[in-house]
Amino acid sequence: MLIVTKPGISQETFEALLEEIKQQGYTPHVSEGESHTLIGAIGAPPTPELMEHFRALPGVDQVIRISKPHKLASWEVHPEPTVLDFPTGRTGNGHFMVAAGPCGVESREQILAAARYVKQHGAQMLRGGAFKPRTSPYAFQGLGVEGLKLLAEARAETGLPVVTEVTSPDLVDLVAEYADVLQIGARNAQNFALLKAAGGSGKPVLLKRGMSMTLDEFLMAAEYVLSEGNPQVVLVERGIRTFEKATRFTLDVSAVPVLKSQTHLPVWIDPSHAAGTREYVTPLALAGIAAGADGIIVETHPNPGEAKSDAAQQLPEAAFADLMQAVRRLLPAVDKALAVPA
């Protein structure tokens, strides 16, 4: 349920209200509005009698039943768009971010070269996989801890925050030591133990939609992270599995406006995994921006032909530079702005 406080409620009354919410077996999540404070009381569906009990408490203006199953992700609990801040930019509510880098960290020379040019061309975050969940057990699985250290070195040189994937609950603490943002990939989007562990890390979480996930399931996956007290979640549409074979996956552009109508969380597009082929990456990225996306995450490699994973979809530097120019031209048309890294 959603508890709306009266304007001017005293701190003492507010604290007593929070304590009563806890005593009744609910977890309070506070959201500050312009004139009212909203408290999402998360737990079992409340009885009419319990709702009346809260309505009668001092300082309470309204008590509203939350209709959405994804309560913390809903506009009801959080009526203002969530904006995530990083040293190099912001995402959400008109602020647009670009995360870019290779699919996997392969060497010191490779990740430093990529970090330098993605920053030069305007990206605000460096992506790169240190742990790589792959379809084949014989494929390149990443450099592990060494990859994390190389990402940290690239961050130290360029100032770009780092996003990298975490693949199991037992790796969350390790990855969180090195990364600024924890990515949960499509294959782990319903790994609930991992979602909870990532939520408990306190780090922002970039959550990709599973390849066969409905949007309701996607939002409920985000709810696992949010329910751990971590409000820093970015939803990423990266293509879903359909009958079409012309692309690796089918980018569900309609997911962007649908998600933005249902949640306050920033929504990004991953055109690289949707396309599977580099020539389609820029058109899909621009389609996502036109639909209202708050950011994109793009794969680019200094020498794509030598990449150890996803070589066909990674952009060379020149193509990435062209993509960034196209992004800059389009953003003003959709009332968004790209911050330029210092």
From TrEMBL:
The keyword Transferase applies. Signal peptide: none annotated. Its EC number is 2.5.1.54. It is an enzyme of class 2 (transferase). Keywords: Transferase. Residues 1-68 form the DAHP synthase ferredoxin-like domain. It holds the Pfam family DAHP_snth_FXD. This is 3-deoxy-D-arabinoheptulosonate-7-phosphate synthase. It comes from Oceanithermus profundus (strain DSM 14977 / NBRC 100410 / VKM B-2274 / 506).
